[in-house]
Amino acid sequence: MTSFSKTCLFALTAGVMAGPWAVVHADDADVAEVTGEAAAEAVEATEELVEQVEAASVEAAAEAAAAADDGFASDLERLSYAIGLNIGTSMKNDSLEIDPAVLAEAITASYTDAEGRMTMDQAMAFLQTYSQKMQQEQMEAALKEQQEALAANNAAAEAFFAENKDAEGVTTTESGLQYVITEKGDGPLPGPSDSVTVHYKGQLLGGEVFDSSYDRGEPATFPINGVIPGFGEGLQLMPVGSKGKLFIPGEIAYGMQGGPGGPNATLVFDVEIIATQPPATPAQLPALGD
Predict the structure, then answer these.
(1) Would 290 disulfide with which of 135, 141, 173, 286, CB 3.0-4.6 Å?
(2) Matching Pfam families, A to Z (predicted)?
(3) Residue 263 domain-assigned?
(4) The pTM is what?
């Protein structure tokens, strides 16, 4: 500990000992008795305070030394560099391709009020035109990607359904849905307006699972008329207690809107029908005001 710190410590400790820890005996008002425990606590607290002050001073000195060796002549230079670094990093993260030298030229011209190669009006007009051009290019790229995905999904579906229709136990409906019941239950068939409770696992043709009530650890309940057409149709073909598989063409799945797997993707569901609940009849509905 430095001599300055020791001096501070002595002064602080003396002040503390003359404070609320001092106990004056009634028999001798001129003599103040300081308890040993309170005095020790005061000294310890003061030492900790001095150590914290010294540590902060050392840290500040180290930071000042590091700043002096960073190659900048002033905080103004550091600020300018920091702002430029932030701008450059943001542009790089946004994948915005620019010419850094021209960017620096424009910043200098604008900041110093020098005559630049563009006026502000010209710059804003160009940015608007350029933005529209980029949006158009992005839309065209997205459309091309969608068309390629559609062609691939249609080709995969055509080959799959042509082969799968001859698989053991598979039935093909008029809509193009293919299904197989692997375990037939003895319960009622769900109706088109029923709500059903099912366990299911949805996959793409490649085997990628996109949704599963099994993974969530509990079955799902939903109205049949609130799901994709092929899924709703398949549920009505399986009595309660049944287990089976549904092979749903893209046209009666998510179609061109592009759900899991992209536009017109074929979906495959493992399904277990647990229960079905018909819609409430008027007599079962609560009366107004109840």
Answers:
(1) 286
(2) FKBP_C (PF00254), FKBP_N (PF01346)
(3) yes
(4) 0.61
Residue 138 lies in a domain: no
Is residue 224 within 8 Å of 196, Cβ to Cβ? Answer: yes
Integer Cα distance of 268 and 48 in angstroms = 69
Tens-digit pLDDT string for the chain (290 aa): 554 444 444 444 444 444 443 343 444 444 445 456 666 676 677 777 767 877 777 676 666 656 667 889 999 999 999 999 999 999 999 988 999 999 999 999 999 999 999 999 999 999 999 999 999 999 999 999 999 999 999 999 999 999 999 999 999 999 999 999 999 999 999 999 999 999 999 999 999 999 999 999 999 999 999 999 999 999 999 999 999 999 999 999 999 988 899 999 999 999 999 999 998 766 555 555 55
Domain residues for the domain of 195 are 163-277
- Tokens standing for residue 11: 């002064």
